[in-house]
Design goal:
The complex is a heterodimer. Chain A is an all-beta fold. Chain A is 0% helix and 50% strand. Chain B is 0% helix and 58% strand. By secondary structure, chain B is an all-beta fold. Chain B is globular and about 50 Å long. Classes of the chains: A mainly beta, B mainly beta. The interface between A and B is medium-sized, with 35 and 33 residues.
Chain lengths: 123, 115
């Protein structure tokens, strides 16, 4: 099974420039996540898609960040204009839908498979 | 507010020694808890998953425990190896309407194993 693909792996830009990251999730995974991980911290959710609809984008700085998942497969995350504090690794992850068994929700479907990340440096 | 707190923030141990990492959460309603290992420069990789009815689960030298009453989990690493040096992240999930999982991440524990 192919993993989650992300590109580019590294990007260096100056502040106020724009940048875009691309993610191709595991085939058949309905849920796609974008996380921002600043050095030394855990991942912070930016946006979560279920197919091509947004489940949660409450922590996405919408004045400068945007994301889309056309056709419910690939996704792009854009930053425009970038600020110094946007320097971070941007992780994409995907997971399959929850599996419902009689009387309980199976946790087995909730493995998030992460890509290697895109490291952004804003100068 | 749903939160996941991990301790210690960082840990240094000698190769061959055991260690235990802690995770406390207030996420509700609880669906499952996963421990991820993140090597430097890579994305996190799932080590183990715990659901509400499970108390202990092992994966090789890793053993995770869950106390759903006190909302605590631990990850015990036995006979540590240099390759265990990584960040260990606790993730607690709820199930949203529509069947998608909403995970809440801890900040992680940075483990360094010295020879």
């Amino acid at each position: 099974e192919a993993g989650v693909a992300q590109s580019p792996r590294y990007k260096i830009i100056e502040k106020r420039q724009s940048v875009a990251f691309w993610c191709n999730p595991i085939s058949g995974h309905a849920t796609l996540y974008w996380y921002q991980q600043i050095l030394g911290q855990g991942p912070k959710l930016l946006i979560q898609f279920q197919n091509n609809g947004v489940v949660d984008d409450s922590q996405l700085p919408k004045d400068r960040f945007s994301a889309e998942r056309l056709k419910g497969v690939d996704s792009t995350l854009k930053i425009q204009p970038a600020k110094l504090e946007d320097s971070a690794v941007y992780l994409c992850a995907s997971s399959s839908r929850a599996r419902y068994e009689v009387g309980r929700v199976s946790g087995g479907a909730n493995v998030l498979t992460f890509g290697a990340g895109s490291r952004l440096t804003v100068l | 507010k749903n939160q996941v707190e991990q301790s210690p923030q960082s840990l240094i141990i000698l190769e061959g020694k055991n260690c235990t990492l802690q995770c406390n959460y207030t996420v509700s309603p609880f669906s499952n808890l996963r421990w991820y290992k993140q090597d430097t420069g890579r994305g996190p990789v799932s080590l183990t998953i715990m659901t509400f009815s499970e108390n202990t689960k092992s994966n090789g030298r890793y053993t995770a425990t869950l106390d759903a009453d006190t909302k605590q989990s631990s990850l015990h690493i036995t006979a540590s190896q240099l390759s265990d040096s990584a960040s260990y992240i606790c993730v607690v999930s709820v199930v949203a309407s529509g069947g998608s999982y909403i995970p809440t991440f801890g900040r992680g524990t940075s483990l360094i194993v010295h020879p």
